[in-house]
Amino acid sequence: MKISITKDGIIEYYGNQVGYVKDNKAVVDVMFQKDEVAEFLTQKNGISVEWKSDVYNNLLKGNIEETVTSKNCRIYQLKPETDLRMRFVSYSDLKEKGFGEPNISNYRVVFDGNVGTEIPEEIYDIFDGPDKVEGLESTGVFISDVIELYDDESSEFHYINASGFTKLNSFTEPKIELKQTETVKEEKVIAEEPKEEKETEFVAFRERLDMGYGRTKTPEREAELNAPKTNEEIQVDTFKIDM
Fold this sequence. Notes:
- This protein is an alpha+beta fold and 243 residues long.
- The chain has 3 domains: 3-60, no CATH class; 72-174, no CATH class; 193-242, no CATH class.
- 35% of the residues lie in helices and 22% in strands.
- It contains 8 helices and 10 strands.
- The strands form 2 sheets. Strands 1-2-3-4-5 form a 5-stranded mixed beta sheet. The protein has a 5-stranded antiparallel beta sheet with strand order 7-6-8-9-10, covered by helices on one side.
């Protein structure tokens, strides 16, 4: 039989010790993450499976690990329609180009599962290897991808740089869009300025024009403004007010 479980709980695959069963949970080396192994454990034996790195090497040394990884892993990659300038650039370059923080709406999930480790460097090595990881909808992981480690209580995101990772405080809308929203709000306030204030400013402006505002004052102009109005002028003014 190519897959079996020994009386000591060791999972053997073609004679190789590839994992172990503990508390009705199988821990199997990620190198042997295959459909036939998963089907044997889950469907035929009713055991849940967790894929983890270095299990095979530890079993060769006679060590059965006492702990299992609890956090799952998601890999995010940029959607095909996103700006090409955002692709394969480091976190600092992304900010310098004015794109702000990485935006989750620009990404799609290409993997969601458990790879047996919570260390970003180890996760990168697993997905960057020559053998395609089961369930990965891509040929590997790249700069500008985002790794999420999550469980029922929390999530953390790691942006992949050319060298190392940047832990993201948030994986939300970029700051550049927030600034645009603030500008729209300011314009809205100006557009809704009360009509009475505009009318008052217009009347004051006309009064200043009538008093000669903005024109050079001459003795003749002052005499004209201070001269008593004739009956005809009063009638004309009254006619203008009535209109």
